[in-house]
Fold each of these.
Amino acid sequence: MQPEMKPGASLLELQSVSKTYAAVPAVQDVSLTLHSGETLALLGPSGCGKSTLLRLIAGLERPDAGRVCMAGQDVTLSPPERRNLSMVFQDYALFPHLNMGDNVAYGPRMRGVNRQAARATALKALARVGLAGLEGRRIHELSGGQQQRVALARALAPGPSLLLLDEPLSNLDEQLRTSLRRDLSRLFAETRAGVLLVTHDQREALSLAGRVALMRAGKVVQTGETGEVFRRPVSAWAAAFLGERNLFVQPGGVLMVPERAIVLGKGEAWTVLERVPSEDGMRVRLAHPLGPLSVTLSPREAALLTGPGLQAEINMAECLTLPDDRDV
Ligand code: ADP
């Protein structure tokens, strides 16, 4: 029996959750909420506590302090199977002795669904992840990408209200990652479940999540709508982690010059220090008085760059001054 959802309650609410291993404070005083249909990325560098937080939510670990609530009920001490959630592990954790179909039917079977209905559910879940007709395949016959899809289908089959994913694309090569990212994005949009995914990859968060919780050393340092977090990082550390290249130490803080603040073809011509072809055109570094200024040129702009210099102006209204917390 799943607990009833209280009206107006969020799907998931963490209240000041902490967890320490030996002397390592892996998660410190984290509070977060997630609503149905929302996709939240826990984003941060390796070792910052993302997986620990995910395991605390799943019920695979117990916090030392704080509460985990789902649908308004305190589940802090409830085992994983009482939480109406599914988890996709980084290494997929499929059952090697079962075929694809049986792997996916396992969850519904454990919940008491009869064999025939569980099989029907499994076939539907496999179709949703693009694996229709392959249910008889053995796990060892599958590619990494297919295994990840089976793991997803297995997580979706019981119809959980919360889907947890630990670095869902990290074990795949670049090409597979791109196609699976697209599929995940579609699946997340289709599902009514809340989705919480752990990633250290900014692009993954940007392409998959509506909201981001940025973590550093066990703490959530910023939460917000994904675009907003990337546009307005709270500090120099956050900006650098999110991929901002133009950060200049000044009196009173760090000046962040985002790409959108750099106006080409206006102002003075700055010497081009370096040209590096990139996937979206060409990245150049200019000898700007602020410091080396990194600018990405479209293929058309790059084609026009023939001389030793490039005209560029900074629109200060688009820049931010941030506290410098990079060595904290
Ligand atoms: P992330 O997922 O962001 O890489 P983790 O949650 O795995 O981070 O780890 C956070 C910190 O907790 C790290 O310092 C890690 O070494 C430590 N840690 C995680 N799990 C354990 C454990 N079972 N025992 C001891 N230390 C752990």
Note: The longest helix spans residues 174-190.
Amino acid sequence: MSDVRPASMERITTPQLADAFIAQQIKEVQAQVGDKKVLLALSGGVDSSVVAALLIKAIGKQLVCVHVNHGLMRKGESEEVIEVFRNQLDANLVYVDATDRFLNLLEGVDEPEKKRKIIGGEFIKVFDEEARKLEGISFLAQGTIYPDILESDGVKAHHNVGGLPEEMQFELVEPVKLLYKDEVRVVGKALGLPASMVDRQPFPGPGLGVRCLGAITRDRLHALREADAILREEFDKNGLATKVWQYFIAVPDMKSVGVKDDKRYEGWPAIIRAVNTKDAMTATIEEIPYEILHHITNRITHEVDGINRVLLDLTPKPIGTIEWE
Ligand code: XMP
């Protein structure tokens, strides 16, 4: 397959078009791979999940998926990967809980770029170690999509597995590389993946690591994960999940004074970021009804240990980037 999308290629918008695409890709992948084994880093994001489901259809157990939990996933995400791929799709899935490795390395590191480098570097190390344990791998599958090719130094560049050591370079299998994101989602639905996976928001490779600001500590990371889960639950319940492109919590490394049960209560603020955008280059702020904001504030401050305030970020991009980092 070339890296250029032919002008004649129809945009995949319906289940029928998705089925035709899937049938064609199954044939192409089978022809490319034969009876060899394929390795895939399965993050649980939309692109790698769709590639995994497609390859399971095409080559079954010849696909080996490796899911590295770096300890910076959103609440429930690694569990969902295991449930969907190992339990429902009967995939060959290697699950690696590398939480301690990542968090130990990140201890005391507060510089954003340094944190990113540590997370990216360690990810490759863990993945590489797992790959070496496996025998007879000939191909590496990747969830590259068309925008990644068009802007090859785009947002994905810093978290794709592009940095494997020399001797670990395999021939690539990239079945969705000519598709736009919306098409990948239609294909994912046709493959039977759950909506929670296919409609998932973009999630940075370094995960909650870019939202737990400054030096990450386990207690603050835990508070962030719990607060973020409440935000997602309330957005889902109140119909905001389909209206807002990306929403999450960031927790800075600072405390302020509060009061709880008549006692002084120092805690971190949870910052709500909820933006709309087409391409993540610019972003606007979606209006959230005050009633919902009050409810979310009430839940987070009462249910999450260590959080004593909830703030709303009203800054468009530019000038604020989407992530706080
Ligand atoms: P910023 O913060 O630059 O983010 O306005 C723009 C979009 O990119 C996402 N983002 C990432 N996505 N790997 C990714 O795949 C990353 O390392 C990464 N960092 C930021 C961010 O969530 C937003 O959607």
Note: Residues 155-156, 158-159, 202, 204-206, 246, 280, 317, 321-323 surround xanthosine-5'-monophosphate (CB under 6 Å).
